[in-house]
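Preliminary data (for renewal application), iron/sulfur cluster complex.
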Amino acid sequence: MKHLLVIFLTLSLNTVLAHDDEHANLGDRATELKDEGKSKDIHPSLDEIRKMHPEFLLHRRDQTLRQGVRTQRDSLKGCVDCHSSTKNDEYVPINAPDQFCSTCHQKVGISLDCFSCHRTTPKEGL
Amino acid sequence: MNKELNRRDFLKNTTAVTAGVATIASGITLTTFAANDNPVTNEKRWGMLVDTNKLTESNINDMVNACQEENGWGSEIHSTGHQKPSWIKKIKVKDKVTGKIDMLPMMCQHCEHPPCVDVCPTNASMKREDGIVLVDKHLCIGCRYCMMACPYDARSFVHEDLSNQKEHMPRGKGTVESCTMCVHRVDKGEMPACAEAVSSNGVIFGDLYDANSKINQTLRKIQSTQIRADLNLNTGVRYSGI
Ligand code: SF4
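Predicted structure:
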């Protein structure tokens, strides 16, 4: 019984950790940066960005729109630029079901409406 | 992690300033904020002067096209005539006595006292400190009161799902939109697309308050008018030649 419990706990812990470390679809640029070991330059703490990104984005959106403060940091454009992935040389819209934003949002039952207005792929004319 | 601390750090990171001053012509200076880390202030008031005598009909068409190209409106396929967005349009004014016809470009006039801001129930319709009137689409509920209130018919409502928007200009179904004075360009120290599309001095863009700016100097010299000046809205877009 004890053995079974240990096995069960190890297994469940593994799945939790696996989910924590790996994102199903990180996006092309973000994967590159991660492989180069540079992701910490952009998101110093994974916990922080996972928990706080709604606040960062909200704060930034008001600053940008109402006060004209335009910096790269914490812009939605920045998220899309790095976390989009390509398929057959074309960008897949970031709000598609298996893409970066949607995988988590679906899992936790969040329905957001960023992308009925915001562009879903990086840059124009790619 | 501590939420407060993060926010403060975050704020701290955004307060560095880099300012640059460039001289573009003798006596005319253009001040830009290289990194735009500082909130805009009411020390500036952006405006435009449209000289209808210097604008041909094709100039005005160019302005409309430039705006569409820059901001991505005008290719809505499901909207019918009146539903189609139109941020800037060509207006024909005819003097019934003499038959004289004037053509002029008409867009949001970026009023100092904008009626659209007065009537907005959600504070979505707003004016920046530097005089640019915008719609915060995050807050817009699509009631269209502002469209009713605008004396210039400058606002449009998006009637259909959109995709492939410009990166710098989010637009979407169910919200109201209008000329932004190309705020994304202005914040970078560039000119609005429509002003850039006219090579003559037909459209002058600049800071109305700055005594060294071309727009200020020209407005002091020549006769100009605000459309519906009787409403006392003190528009940022001024016209001469009409
Ligand atoms: S300032 Fe920009 S948004 Fe406004 S009419 Fe001109 S091109 Fe269009």
